[in-house]
Amino acid sequence: MNHDKMTNISVKRGFLWPSFEIYSGVAGFTDYGPLGAILKNNIMQKWRKQYITEEGFYEIESPTVSPEEVLRASGHVNNFTDPMTQCVNCKDVFRADHIIEEQIKKEVDGLDNDDLDKLIKEEEIQCPNCGDKLTEIWNYNLMFKTKIGAKGDKIGYMRPETAQGIFIQFKRLSRFFKNKLPFGVVQLGKAYRNEISPRQGVIRLREFTQAEAEIFVNPKYKTHPKFSKIKDVEMVLNSAVTQIKNESPLTITAKEAVDKGIVANEILVYQIYLAKKFLNELGIPDKFLRFRQHMPNEMAHYALDCWDVEVKTDRYGWVEIIGIADRGDYDLLAHSKHSNEDLNIYIQYDEPKTQTKEYIKPSMNTFGPKFKQNAPAIIKKLENLNVDLVKKEIENNGKYIIKINNSSFEILATDVEFVEKTEEVKGEKITPHVIEPSFGIDRIIYAVLIHSFHEAENKEDKDYFKLKPNIAPIQVSVFPLLNKKELNEIAIKIVEELRNYGLNVDYDTSGTIGKRYARCDEIGVPIAITIDFDTLENNSVTIRNRDDETQERIDIDEIKTKIDKVMKS
RNA sequence: GCGGCUGUAGUAUAGUCUGGUUAGUACUUGGGCCUUCCAAGCCUACAGCCCGGGUUCAAAUCCCGGCAGCCGCACCA
C-alpha cells in the first residue's frame, strides 16, 4: 500500500481527477476520468450482478431532489442537522450540544435550540478554548437545500441517501412483488451531503455514489433460505461487546455468530457475507477487511443494529466502506404517519388460525326491561371493556358499575352472560422490517485501487494496478511488435474483432514494445497480444499475462477462448 | 470553521530568503528515425510560475485577500 504513489498514477492515467480544477477546484468533489468511469461502471455492474441477478432483487431509479416532506418524515430535516455555536472572541466553532454536555455533565438530547440557548446563558457555558462568550445557536444541516419551481416556495433537498426513494414507493413495490415478503429493491445513484470540511479525497465527498439494497422482511422470520450454504464461512467480527471490553475481534463462523447472538439474525449475517464476497472478488483480501458493530450511541436515528465493513488503508486507517443496518420498521412507520398511507403488508397465514375469545353478551330479557332507553349505549360500552376485568368485578363484588355521562348503571351477574366465541383469522397486517446493505461506491473504488496497487520492489519491477480482469477498464492491449505497415494491418484486424466481441481494447504502436507493456501494465490491462513477423507466416501471436509476465504462442483463432479463460479467473 | 505549513509544464524539481537576461533540468506525452518481446538510443515538438489585488521602473520572488492541498483541532446523523 502506498497512497501517494497510487494517487499519483491514478490521476496521471485518468482514474480520478480533482473537479473544477481550472477554477482552482472545490473540496469534496471528484471527477472520474476515462479509465475511472469505466472502472466505476464495471464495479457497479458487478454489484448489480450480485444483487439483481444472483439475489433476485430489482432496481429502481428515483429523483435525486426530494421535496421537504419526505426528508421531514425520514427524520433528516430534524436529525441531520447539528446545532452549532461560535466563540465571539477566538471564532472557534463547536457543536453546541457537545460542549454543554461537557460542561454541565448532563445529557441534553431532545432539547431544541431555544432550550440550548437558554442553557448556555443560565449555565454560563464558555468557549472551551479561551473561555469567552458563545453566539446564539444555528443549525448546520448537512443537506443541500434548493427550491422547486418558479415561485420557489417549495423547498427541496438533494437526497442524503438513495434509500428514501425506495421506501416512498413501498405500496407500488409491494404490489410489484405480489405482496409477498421478503423482497429486495436496490438503487444505485448519487447522494449529497454538505460536509463541513471534507478532506481525505474520495473518502469524504459532498457528492457521492451509493449502491443500496432495501430488503423488506417479515419481522418474525429473519431467516435466510441460503443461510445453510454459508453457515461455515468464517468472518472476523468486532462486536459492540468486544469493543467495549477492548478485546480483539472474534473469528467465528456465520452460524456461531447467529447462535451466540453476536449478529441479530441470519439475514444480517448473510448480508455481511455478501459484502465480504463482493469485496474479495474485487481483489480485496480478508486480511484487510473487518466487520465492526456500531456502538449503541453511534447508531443512526433509524437503526436497530448496524455493522460496518471496514477496509484497511495506509493513509486513513480503517475506513468504513459499507454499512449493513437493520432499520427495523422505522422508515415505513415514519412515512406512513406523515403521509397517512398504510404502508404495510397483509400476511395470509398458511392455515387460518382459530382464535377463541370471550365476549360479554347482554341477557336481553332482563337487560332490556332494566335499562330501557339506556340499553343501547350500555351495550356499546360493554363491547369495549376488558372482559376479564368485568368478569372479576362481578365475581368479587356482585356488580360492575358503568358510568355514562353523569349516570351510573349497575351490571349484575343476571344481566350478562360470558360467552366464548371461536373465529377464524386468515392473516394479519404487518409493517415489514428493512435490512439495508449500503455501499459507498467511491470509497470502494479507492479501496480497490489501493489494494490492487502493486508497488515496485526493485529496479526491474514497476508500479501498476493489478486489477482483477473482470473489472479492469481495458481488458486487452494489442501491439504490433514493430511499427510496420504489414504488422499494423493484422493488429488492427484483431483489434476490430475483439471490440466486436465486446472487449475494451487498446491499440498502441508508439515506442518500443517494452514501453508499451509497461504502459498497459500500469493501468491494469490483464492481457496483451503481440503481432510479430511469425504471425505473417503461421497465424500465431504472443499472448502475455500482466501478473507474471509469462508469454505463450497461440493461434489467432484461440485468442478469444484464452481471453475468456483469463476473464473468469 | 480555526491554526500551522505548502502551491513553478502531465510528474518530480531548480530559481523565492537577497525582486532584474528568453524561468533551467529530468522523466512523461505527440511526431520522426532506429529497433524482432518488457520504460534502450537519436532528432523534434507541445507544455509551467494557483487566482485576484497591492508595492515597485521592474514581481515566480515582497505584502494583502481568495482558492486548493497537507498536518493538528473541531465536524463526519
From TrEMBL:
- Cellular component terms (Gene Ontology): cytoplasm
Under Gene3D superfamilies, the record lists: 3.30.40.230, Anticodon-binding domain, Bira Bifunctional Protein, Domain 2
Which Gene Ontology molecular function entries are recorded, alphabetically? ATP binding; glycine-tRNA ligase activity
InterPro entries the UniProt entry points to: aa-tRNA-synt_IIb, aa-tRNA-synth_II, aa-tRNA-synth_II/BPL/LPL, Anticodon-bd, Anticodon-bd_dom_sf, Gly-tRNA_synthase/POLG2, GlyRS-like_core, tRNA-synt_gly
- Keyword Cell membrane assigned to the entry: answer is no
Primary location class: cytoplasm
**By its UniProt entry, which PROSITE patterns does this protein fall under?**
AA_TRNA_LIGASE_II
GO biological process entries = glycyl-tRNA aminoacylation
**Localisation per UniProt entry:** Cytoplasm
E.C. designation(s): 6.1.1.14
Pfam name, any one: HGTP_anticodon
Enzyme class at the top of the EC tree:
ligase
Q: Which residues form the Aminoacyl-transfer RNA synthetases class-II family profile domain?
A: 4-469
Record's keyword terms, sorted:
Aminoacyl-tRNA synthetase, ATP-binding, Cytoplasm, Ligase, Nucleotide-binding, Protein biosynthesis
**Homology family:** Belongs to the class-II aminoacyl-tRNA synthetase family.
User: What is the official name of this protein in its record?
Assistant: glycine--tRNA ligase
Question: Which species is listed as the source?
Answer: Methanobrevibacter filiformis
